[in-house]
Amino acid sequence: MEKSYYDPKDLAKFGNIAEFQPLLASKFFDYYGEVFKEGALTEREKALIALAVAHAVQCPYCIDAYTTGSLEKGADEAQMMEAIHVAAAIKGGAALVHGVQMMNKVKEVMM
Amino acid sequence: MKSLAAQHSLLADAAFQLDVLSQPLPQGRVFPAFGQRLQENGLLPLKPSQISILQINLGKMCNQVCKHCHVDAGPDRKEIMTRETMQLCLDALAESTIQVVDLTGGAPEMNPHFRWFVEELSKLGRQVIVRCNLTIILANKKYHDLPEFFKLHGVQVVSSLPYFTASRTDAQRGEGVFEKSIKALQMLNAVGYGQEGSGLILDLVYNPAGAFLPSSQQSLEAEFKRRLQQGYQIVFNNLFAITNLPISRYLDYLITSGNYEGYMEKLVNAFNPAAAANVMCRNTVSVGWEGSLYDCDFNQMLDLPVAATAPRHIRDFDLASLSERAIVINQHCYGCTAGAGSSCGGETVNP
Ligand code: SF4
Ligand code: SF4
Asked: Which Gene3D superfamilies does this entry report, sorted A to Z (chain A) (predicted)?
């Protein structure tokens, strides 16, 4: 198969979304830039959060971007993998906690 | 690991490296010429501001063979500065107003005339910086007293420590380097280096261990201080964050790992005119092991001597005509002008 849905080169073209709707794109990128500036959290902490979220939403572009981003902000491999485990724990926990709903329903409909 | 020279690699040849940097990429893509970027920002020709540092490369001999080494240094390299050339440097300094002398290599301490040279420089009353790779202090008994020697002459010690963990440091600088570096730092601390109020300055240098750029120097420094203090009771003064320039062994790494295009793209996209206005070649002149003069240690390794309008050997040193010269630039200079800028003293602008 020649083409696939994800092409790593498309990451660099992210800015091109402005082509179809400049105003909303510029508002988004301004906001995005502001979010990742050092604030109550350091830039490194924000990069690690972004890396974890990228795994939770399973975005390959963001995984690439925030793997390098975390390295550039001085994070080490152990911190990066721990961040992913946090995402995994929340994702797994979120699925499992709905088990209570399943159990409630079972109890409701079973004799 | 061997130096590129010992491997007879094509990349050991400076002209070949310059070719690689200017050739179009496989799909015909060409990065804009660095000179063009300077011109757009009114910085061409690039001229010195005030020359205040003489950086002297005492040779290519080194006890380490780091993967990112822009000198292609190593135990198999025999090029070292002679005492006669050192004397020429002393004569030039005695005649000039330059107050800071930055000794580099290789491992400058491996030059047999190193101690004599430092003593003479300190007699001249100049501030001496030594770029010490740390492991040299433990490499051989004869180097164990280097911390005391540095202290005696008030030498400022600047040492590479790519990271505060063993895996990443060893990946860049060789197996076991982290552990030895930690011991050497403790020895430097023990004689007073990095300790508050001692006046003995110990600075660390951070280079990314891979194909990425350094982050803010300030936040890295805070993290390094915390981790080195907690883990090993080590203290130091400043951390310099340095970008790896795409030359020599780092260029070899970029090409063989498939990171060349992506890394150059990063550097080019991060071009910062404020960093370009503050590049270190504007206040530094670099002397090669054979006495030739260069705009910086990188140009030295690429065999790009200072412009012919200026003296090209330390024996003809002349600050006035060096101050008038145009600095020789090329594509590798993108490494000094990316983001917050990079020099031997770390960032050149506040982001
Ligand atoms: S980077 Fe420094 S310590 Fe490493 S091989 Fe080069 S000169 Fe030696
Ligand atoms: S590589 Fe050398 S000449 Fe080029 S900008 Fe950096 S310091 Fe200046």
From this structure: AhpD-like
Total domains in chain A come to: 2
**Residue A14 structure tokens:** 């992210």
User: Do A32 and A56 sit in the same domain of this protein?
Assistant: no
Residues A60 and A99 in one domain: yes
Is A44:B223 a contact under the CB 8 Å cutoff? yes
How large is the average pLDDT for residues B332-344?
96
Token look-up 């300790």 returns B195
A68 in any annotated domain: yes
Task: Note whether A94 and A63 are same-domain residues.
Answer: yes
CA of B344 to the centre of ligand 1 (A): 14
Domain with B254 in it: 10-22+48-336
A84 shares a domain with A31? no
SS3 B53: strand
Closest-CA residue in chain A for B212?
Answer: A72
* CA of residue B64 to ligand 1 center, whole Å: 6
How close B15 comes to chain A (CA, Å)?
A: 31
Residues A54 and A101 in one domain: yes
Half-sphere exposure of B292 (CA within 13 A, CB side): 18
Task: Kindly give the number of the ligand 1 atom that is closest to the alpha carbon of B65.
Answer: 5
For residue B351, pLDDT over 80 is answered with no
- Amino acid letter, B206: Y
pLDDT of amino acid A103 = 96
Number of C-alpha atoms within 13 angstroms, CB side, residue A97?
6
pTM of this prediction?
0.91
At B278-324, the pLDDT tens digits run 999 999 999 999 999 999 999 999 999 999 999 999 999 999 999 99
Same domain, A34 and A88: no
State the pLDDT at residue A51: 98
Domain match, A106 and A79 both: yes
Point out the ligand nearest to the CA of residue B285. 2
Count CB-CB contacts under 10 A for residue B213: 20
Provide the residue range defining the domain that includes A17.
Answer: 12-41
How close A56 comes to chain B (CA, Å)? 24
Choose the mutation target among B29, B164, B207, B215 for the interface with A, i.e. most A CBs under 10 Å: B215
